[in-house]
Amino acid sequence: MNINFTLNGKGMELDVDPMALALDVIRGLSLTGTKEGCGVGVCGACTIMVNGSPVSSCICLVGTLVDKDVWTIEGLAEKMPELIDSFVEHEGMQCGICTPGQIVAAASIDSVGASSPEEVKKYMAGNLCRCTGYQTILSAVEDHVAVN
User: Which of 26, 52, 77, 95 has a CA between 20 and 30 Å from the CA of residue 70?
Assistant: First the structure.
């Protein structure tokens, strides 16, 4: 089936099974920044942005993306370099497995308007990390939100 959507600002038309996972389709396009962590939608490593909201791509069927605006870490790295810079400045990553999902979730904060540290912490709670202890991630996101 032909699936049409926008991916990282570019129109896509793919002949794929609409029941395929968005994660697998995206990674099959050589966009390997999106990681699979848990495979059940709870860790946030596979987060993509769909119409401005964070979505777990490991449980998202590609058929649900028809006519939607989808962003991955690769596209956001070009679109929002200041957010990447904030993660680097605050050392908001260690092993890097969760980092793409953390950054995508942080990028989507603009659509909900979280501005206080409490709101940022609540919003980022869906992204798990086993390395950083979260404070460096939260500092990076809070700095980005304050700047934008």
Answer: 95
